[in-house]
Amino acid sequence: SQKIEQNSEALNIQEGKTATLTCNYTNYSPAYLQWYRQDPGRGPVFLLLIRENEKEKRKERLKVTFDTTLKQSLFHITASQPADSATYLCALKGSSNTGKLIFGQGTTLQVKP
Amino acid sequence: EAQVTQNPRYLITVTGKKLTVTCSQNMNHEYMSWYRQDPGLGLRQIYYSMNVEVTDKGDVPEGYKVSRKEKRNFPLILESPSPNQTSLYFCASSSQDRGNSPLHFGNGTRLTVT
User: Fold this and answer.
1) Which one of B42, B92, B103 has the shortest CB-CB distance to A105?
2) In this model, does residue A95 exceed pLDDT 70?
3) Would you call B19 an interface residue with chain A, using a CB distance cutoff of 8 Å?
4) What's the pLDDT at B70?
5) How far apart are alpha carbons B53 and B63 in whole angstroms?
């Protein structure tokens, strides 16, 4: 069955370091992959989208890579700040899978000052 | 301000008492969807709507109903709530149902059914 895996363990890093979060998927051929940020008790907020034919996408301190051979996306936050502490969700959608954006369970990032 | 508005934010009810959670978006989006989020299970889609009068089941539709009579509104109806429907619910919308359209989420409705 289709599966999306994000590290369920929280990621703790020091302020200023680069945070790297992983999203792996199986039995799926996504055409698009999206990353969202979710703060406790709030709705997810869209951050970045990357297409299957794109290797990398950047937005300010954020960088996303998409490796369809490894079936993996990496999400990087450079020069991390305590305000980056949140849960980060990846979501995938196939080009033929109308109506469904499948979400991973998310990884919680804690940036310590 | 572009937004998705859900009401209420918090709701405590008893088993069997019908309730409706409202959702409204002001972005003229065609696509709307309801999710529930539970610890360890992540976001799961309940129902979605591609446009007015077009709705379809998501992954966990049992016990829920929706309607899309107007483009901006997509209420979630629980005809006879049960304790296993205690959850955090999110409404979301996007300009079209394609993977390159980001979802805009509401701030959630925390429902407790006793």
Assistant:
1) B42
2) no
3) no
4) 96
5) 20
